[in-house]
Amino acid sequence: MNKVYFFFLNRDQVLRIRASSDDQIDKLQLLETLEHLQLDFWLHPSNPALPVDIRVPFGSLQAVRAFLGYHDIEYSILIEDVQVILNEEKQEMISNQRRERSNSNFNYGAYHSLDAIYKAIDDLAAEYHGLVSKLQIGESYEKRPLYVLKFSTGGPDRPAIWLDAGIHAREWVTQATALWTAQKIASEYGNDPSITSLLDTMDIFLLVVTNPDGYVYSHAKNRMWRKTRSKAAGSLCVGVDPNRNWDAGFGGPGSSDQRCSDSYHGPHANSEVEVKSIVDFIKKHGNIKAFLTIHSYSQLLMYPYGYKCTEPADYRELDTVGKAAANALTSLHGTSFKVGTICSTIYQASGGSIDWSYDFGIKYSFAFELRDTGRYGFLLPADQIIPTAEETWLGLKSIMEHVRDHPY
Amino acid sequence: MELEPSHYPAQRAAGVARACISYRRGGPNRVLTLSNVRRARLQVRGRERGPRGQAVNCTAEVLYHLGSQHSAPEVHFTVEGELGKNPDDADNKFYSRIKSLKEPLVAQNIPDSFGIVPPEMEPIRHLAFSACDYIIWQNSTENTWYNLAQIQDVRQVKRNDDYLEFDYTVLLHDFVSQEIIPWQMQVLWHPQHGVKVTQNSRQPK
Q1: Pick from B101, B112, B147: CB nearest A48
Q2: Which UniProt keywords apply (chain A) (predicted)?
C-alpha cells in the first residue's frame, strides 16, 4: 500500500473483513454508501473470496464494529494505529530522499524495462563520471546496443575482471543484481578499502544485459523466453541458447541441434552476435584475469568444465576460491550455495561461456546461479532482489579479492 | 553404490523422492520442500512448505526403470515424525471459501511476471504444487529435473459432491533440458480425502 496522508489522523484503524456470503457482501456495500462515516475502502467488497479492507476514522469505529457484530461479519484489525504507520512511512521516504542524490530515485528493488535499465546505466556513468564510463561493445541481433560499464581509475591495459548478467532473458534477478552491483562498486570506491585497492590496480567491466532482445521479449511476449531472437531462413522457431554457443566443446553433449529447443546451440560457435561481441572484446583487451557470469536459478557457484566431465588443471584452487566465496555469500542471509564443476553439479553442457574463457587462459572463470531453488524459480519476487544482490556481492567480492591478490 | 550428495544424480533422485512423498501426504498446506540430501542412497531431509515449516526426516529408495517404455520411478520411503492427516484450519478455511463462491474461480499467471501471488491465491498455488508432485514423480527419469514454474491458467469446475475440482494448465521447467513444458491437469481436493490428479496430459509448446 502506497498511501500517504497529509492531514492529521487520530488513531484510525484499518480493519480486514472476511465476508462469508454474498449476503454479507451486500451488507458491506451498504456500509460503503454511508458517507457520514467517512470510511476509506482500500479493498472494496466484491466477492466473498476476497478480503475487504477499510480504514475507519477513529470517530466511526464504534459504529462500524457494532454494524459488523450485528451482522455476524468476521473481521480483524490489520493496522491498529494508522498514525504510527504513516509516521514510519514518512520517515522512510525522507531517509530515501536523503540517500538518493541527483537523479537516482531509481528503485533497485524492482524489475525494470530495458529502457529503464539503460537510463539507469547512463545516470550511473554520469554520477560517477570519474570512475565509470559506458562502452558499446556491439549490437544485438535486433540492433540494440550492448553496453558495458567500465570501472577504472586510469592506466592503460590494466588487468581486468569481466562480469556479465542476463545472458538468459528470463533470469530477471540477474540483470537486476548486476545493476545494483554496478551502483555498489561505484559507491564503494573510496569508502571500502578492499574495493578501493582493487580498483587502484585493476579495472572492472560489467555487462548488465547480455541479451537485450531476449529481455525485451520476456517483458512483451513470453516471460519464460531464454534464448536470443535470431532468425534463420526456413525455420519457424527463433533464437539460439547463447550459453551453448561459445567455442568450447561446441555441439557436444548437453546442447541441442534442434532449432526449437531451448538449448539449441546454433549453426556454429559464435554465430550469435551477442556472444561474438564479448569474445571479440575480450580478445582485443588481452588482459582479462577473471570471467564471472551470473545466472539464475539454483543457488550454485560453478567453475569449469561443463563440456567435459574432467576436472580443470586449476581444480584445487578454483574449488577453494569457490567455497570461500560461497561461505561469504551464505554469511549474510543464510542462503546456501553448492560449489563444484558444471558437469558434476548440474549437467554436462557444451558451448558454455566459462569453459571458453578458461580454455582461452582466463583462470578465474566462475558461473553463479542465484536464488532460488525452485519455489519461485525465474519468477523471483522483487522483494528478494536486494537481499540477493547483497549476498551475491559478498561472493563476488571474495573472488575479486583473490584475483587481485594472485596476479598471473 | 554411494552417490555424492551434492552432485546432480543424487539431487535429481532426491527431487523425485520428494515429489512422490509430498504427493502422498497430499494437501495444499502439506507440500514438502527439499532441504538437504545427507547421504545418497537416499536419505532425504524434507521441510514442510509454509510458515509452520516442520522439519521431517525421510529415507527413500528411488528406482528408475530403464527401458524403452517409460514408467514412473518407484519410490519406497519411510517418514519419521509423521504428522497427523487431519485437515488443519487453513485447509478448512480455504475449502469453505471456495465452496461459497457464486462464480467458479478463474485465474491466470500465478505467480505473475514479477513473482507476485495475491494472498487469496496462495492455497490455489499450494494445491498446484501438490498436484504437480504427482506429475513430476510419474514423469521423472535420471535425465530430468522438474519444477513448477508457473500456473498459466486455473479454472474451477463446479461439482455436486463434496470435492473441489480445478482444471490447471501449468508450466513445468525441466532444468536439464531447460525446456518449459505446458501441462494440463485435472485436480480433485477435499480436506479429509486429500489431493488426486484424475487426468493429466502434456501440452504442445
Answers
A1: B101
A2: Carboxypeptidase, Disulfide bond, Hydrolase, Metal-binding, Metalloprotease, Protease, Secreted, Signal, Zinc
pLDDT digits (tens, 9 = 90+) for A294-327: 999 999 999 999 999 999 999 999 999 999 999 9
The CATH number for B8-80, chosen from 3.90.190.20, 3.30.70.260, 3.10.450.10, 3.40.50.2300, is 3.10.450.10
Domain boundaries, chain B: 8-80, 88-202
Q: Distance (Å) from the C-alpha of residue A176 to the closest C-alpha of chain B?
A: 12
Please tell me the CATH code under which domain B88-202 is placed. 3.10.450.10
Residue B178: its chain A contacts at CB < 8 A?
Answer: 226, 241, 262-263
Confidence of residue A38 (pLDDT cuts 50, 70, 90): confident
Average pLDDT over residues A215-240: 96
CB contact under 8 A, A381 and B114: yes
Size of interface A-B (CB pairs under 8 A): 86
Secondary structure of chain B as H, E, C letters = CCECCCCHHHHHHHHHHHHHHHHHHCCCCCCEEEEEEEEECCEEEEEECCCCCCEEEEEEEEECCCCCCCCCCEEEEEECCCCCCCCCHHHHHHHHHHHCCCCCCEEEEECCCCCCCCHHHHHHHHHHHHHHHHHHHHHCCCCCCEEEEEEEEEEEECCCCCCEEEEEEEEEEECCCCCEEEEEEEEEEECCCEEEEEEEEECCC
Name chain B contacts of A261, Cβ cutoff 8 Å: 177, 179
Task: Residue B120: list chain A partners with CB under 8 A.
Answer: 49-51
Q: Do B114 and A111 touch (CB under 8 A)?
A: yes
Which of B120, B150, B173 comes nearest A49 by C-beta? B120
B19 CB-near residues (< 8 Å, 6+ apart): B132, B133, B134, B136, B137, B140, B146
Mean pLDDT of all residues in B94-114: 95
pLDDT of residue A89: 64
Residues of B in contact with A21 (CB under 8 A): 100
User: A47–B98: do the CB atoms touch at under 8 Å?
Assistant: no
Do B8-80 and B88-202 share a fold? yes
Residue-wise pLDDT for B145-202, tens only, equals: 999 999 999 999 999 999 999 999 999 999 999 999 999 999 999 998 889 999 999 9
Catalytic residues of A: 369
The ipTM (two decimal places) reads: 0.84
pTM (2 d.p.): 0.79
Region B21-44 average pLDDT? 64
